[in-house]
Amino acid sequence: MEVYIAGKGIISAIGLNVEETLQSLKAGKSGIGTQTNLTGRRDSNLPTGEIALSNAELASMAGLSADYSRTALLSMIAAKDALADADINIKGLKCGFISATTVGGMDKTEKFMASFIRDGEVKDIGRILYHDSGAITELVAEALGIKHFVSTISTACSSSANAIMYASRLIKTGVLDMAIAGGTDAMSLFTLSGFNALMILDENYCTPYDDNRKGLNLGEGAGYVVLVSEKVAGKLSKAPAVKLTGYANANDAFHQTASSPEGKGNYLAMQGALKMSGLEISAIDYINLHGTGTANNDLSEGMAIQRIFGERVPKSSSTKAFTGHTLGACGGIEAIFSMMAIEQKMIFPNLRLKTPMKELGFVPVTELMEGVEVKNVLSNSFGFGGNCSSLIFSKVN
Amino acid sequence: MEELMATLKKEIFEQLNLQHVKPEDIAYDQPLFVEGLGLDSIDALELIVLLQQKYGIKLANPAEGPKIFYSIKTMAEYITAHKKQ
Amino acid sequence: MELFIKGIGCISPQLTYDNPDFLPGIKKYAGNRMMCIEPDYAPYFDAGSLRRMSRVVKFSAAAALIALKDSGITQLDAITTGTGYGLLENSEKFLKSMAESTGPVLSPTSFIQSTHNTVGATIALITGCNAHNNTFSHKGFSFESALIDARLMVAEGATHVLVGAHDEISEKTFALMEKLDVFRNNNEADINAYEKGSSGIVAGEGAAFFILSDKKGESDYGVLMDNIIFYHPENAIEVKQHIEAFLEKNKLALENIDVVISGINGDAKEDAVSHEINHLLFAHQTIVLFKHLCGEYMTASSFGFWLAAKILLAQQVPETVILKNRHRKPGYILLYNVFQNDHSLMLFKAC
To answer: Could you write out the three-class secondary structure of A330-385?
Structure first.
């Protein structure tokens, strides 16, 4: 049983939709900059991949109330686009909405809690009603008209890769005919302050896989794909160009935040995905790296890649220098970059990489490559708690 | 110096919520990390916070940590050298 | 696919561990919250790791270790967990430090341990388990999704899966929920008061973990036959259709069900559909309640799962949980839970 991808929807610092995103990727235009929506802490001066729209503007795009969490607004915009792109009538189909988020409604909660903690102020208590991750998913499911099946995954930075994986498994076992799967996370002071407390934020624009990398930049966004069964795929007006052929999740079981030096979890996830796909390692044309830009991640990931691919590491790049690290959304967003690589015959550059890492024998692609036959893409997402996920996207022949 | 090291020890135990050892079991020159108390990278970050909150010392580069946080003694020496007058 | 329940571990507002007796008496709570009776954690964790664990991490990871020990299994092929609110205490602690600290650098520990998958990750660390590790956070479907994941994992080849759920009452969130007027203040652990119902719920918390496998053993508790979720049904008629279709899919008739474990929480408005279903479908079954024991929380159904497992093994239903019809021997058990219009069913049978 194969699972096809019939549609995609994305919003991030480099574009409000698929077309804008592609233009930015082709132009090498990064979305990192000074952020403006959040203020009040010193952390808010750090560079981020912020979407340059206010909540009111996003709400109008989403067709939702501006009182809702930015996480829900971003989710709705990307999920709605994905569904429209698939051009599919969900009526009569067992359709699921499997979303992922790490912050949920924290953007609203943190505003409320700041004044509640300082002054006991409870005037805006309504802000916390949609704090939990599931509440965000239900707001969007409601707006999309999806009732059959909903779920939410929250496994830190691998969340949306896991959502895509879970959706695919539900389709393969016939629980669902199709699913909109991916993730969403809005910028919040909570995550900015938290990652800053871990001292892994770069005060300048991040430089993944550079020997002098100083850390990551946070980003925000949402990315969803529409996964369909073979049967549904056969009835679509537009034949799917990409299918999900492999996936695996593994746990590093090393440390709450740090990756093991050899990247054991990363290795097991990639290995598991490759095994499921049945592909030879030489069949992988491109790796969309997790590549956050922290000393620890890029080294562990790089070591694990070398252990699998030896001296024949495929072309690779981290796209986080474009978008920032979008946490619970990055697996969904990068699934779409992986699809674009296949569809557009392109490999997007790892921006700002000047000095290759001395520990590694491979260097990610630093210039846009066009006209390249990309048949199989491996996409990595690794998170706190040792949560490692890899997905493989393949061209439909 | 003796007084600073005693205070520092108390503060370290509090900041790191150490329960598996008693303050009196830790010598001032005993290594705190891996082979000593078994502290890890998160503890190093907590010690950076401690330096900042209690002594007004900002350690911008966590890579300096291992040297400064080698023992209570090395920490006290660093504080003495860098404390704002 | 039938899954055998090999081990259980539950830490709750009742004494549900280290207790040879099965709920002969229950602990009653006067106020509007019911909090866990926690064990001494020293036998479960080394002091070095205990120092960073918040209350929910401790009672949840301990519940998982109790389940593991109970099963006698050492090698896990997947860990999957559910939590509605995640790690509230740590989140609040970090929000507090953000609100109060003027310095740019905050203490990172509470942030690190605020992610929803902290408990699943902690269990992986303790058991050295590199396998699939998933965490669902979706209101009344959090534990249910983890169960679906567990069933899929076994279908895909896993032999032993650890599945569980956890939620905690934290100081600030509780205070805020009080302000939102969601609680009732006349908590009586009396089951009849739960049936009669009034306005509001009693807050609860807990962690329950289970080892599930497709391999039958000598000392299994019972069998999880199936579980489903259905989202925001319009009315009791739609719920009735879901229940009938679910039983039919599992080749059972209504009459086959001996015990119904119902997620009635004492809030008359929210319980209306459950009452109607009991009236429409289950006039003769033994009706069992459990939220008078553990309170209401997003993953309370995991306490219901624990109760089902214990009933199946004991082959008797404790008096303290029976609402009506005490005569049926527990062969097949149906658990029907509702949390804010997220509905779920779990079907069990005796071995």
So the answer is: HHHHHHHHHHHHHHHCEECCCCCCCCECCCCCCCCCCCCEECCCCCEEEEEEEEHH
